[in-house]
Amino acid sequence: MMRIRPDYWQSVYTGSTEVALTDQKRSYEVVPTTECRDLDHWAAVRVPDAAFAEVDTVRVAFVDGVRRIDMHGIIDGNPPYYGVFGSVAAGCMQMCGSHAHDVTEALCDEAVRHYFVTNAPDPDMKTLKLASDASCPFDVEYEIRSAASHDPGDFGQELNNLMQELEHDVAQKEVDRPDVQAVVTDGPIPYEHRLAAGTGKLAGIIKNVQEAYLQREQFATVLGLKTAERTPIFEIRYPESSGSSKMSFFLRLRAVTPFASQMANLVRIELPVMGLTEAIHLANLASAIAVHYSSNLWGDTRAPQNLYPVGALETALKNRLGDQRFLRSVIMRTLSADETSAPRPAQAPPRGS
Asked: Which residues does residue 239 pair with via DSSP β-bridges, in sequence order?
């Protein structure tokens, strides 16, 4: 049976393995004329007042997830294999109107999963149940998953993928709710567009703009955006995957202060591919939602891009993950119990006996 031993390096480090840095990006092509057919008139679009009025009447579901590496593990052998104990959670914060919301009432559909991600081929265990204690009973199991990559440095990405799967499941529940008029994910929408294609509900907000997507002439419009202005909608196509396309646009949440970069307060918003009329309505509504719920720097160092409901959701989900130090201690206790209960190899009798 597979024997997992603790790697005592703290999880804030990468563990006692070498990590290779990779920068793999999907190839794509951009069609900038989705909304504005004439590139000579490709200019900023002001979010209409009607969209801001609509925000006060619709129920918006904000979906996000969190992940954490609880501890590293080593599977002894020749060669040895490696793994990480990780916890992921996803959930939703439903908001309706401008009044104050109670976090416990707004939080819904939260889910927590625990995984041991390893590069060991064909592990002979499906789960590892943590040793519970009578003084503090609990029921936690780590599902054992084989990593797609053999490189231990990719385990964090594997956990991220598992977190995104959980996010997509939560988002699908919110999309299916008839009383929810908009679903906003914190991050990209799925490439496969498994969610809400054509419903006019789903939008994904990318807080950290690191890629231009547009040519210099069009990106000049991005840099010149004012508060509550967006670019025309453009389409991002991924040719290596048929049907894998997205609609997208840039939005300025707040005015740029004199000492800030022109990239300050920008977000990029993604939509599933849909009819243009429906896409323009959703783009304006998603823009108004993002501006309305944008945070302030005195309350969030990621302001204004980290929307208030998303920040509250992240805090609530991190609490759902459980105390990391406690989990770490119970993992070590469980692994040590497995080791002491394992049969020891027979020892040769001493000479002369």
From this structure: none
Read out DSSP for 92-130? EEEEESSS---HHHHEEEEEEEEEEEE--SS-S-SEEEP
More confident residue, 163 or 100: 163
HEC sequence for 176-241: HCCCCCEEEEECCCCCCCCCCCCCCCEEEEECCCCCCCCCHHHHHHHHCCCCCEECCCEEEECCCC
Let me know if 131 is exposed, middle or buried by CB neighbors in 10 A (0-12, 13-18, 19+).
middle
Q: What is the CA radius of gyration of the chain?
A: 24
What's the pLDDT tens digit per position in 169-183?
Answer: 999 999 999 999 999
Q: Who's near 53: CB < 8 A, 6+ residues apart?
A: none
C-alpha distance from residue 157 to each of 69, 86, 112, 161, 171 (Å): 11, 11, 18, 6, 20
Structural domain boundaries in the chain = 26-67+92-110+167-333
Q: Do the beta carbons of residue 47 and residue 229 sit within 8 Å?
A: yes
Instruction: Measure the CA–CA gap between 111 and 92, rounded to whole angstroms.
Output: 10
Interval 217-239: pLDDT, tens:
999 999 999 999 999 999 999 87
pLDDT band for position 6 (cuts 50, 70, 90): confident
CB-based contacts of 161: which residues, under 8 Å, 6+ apart?
none
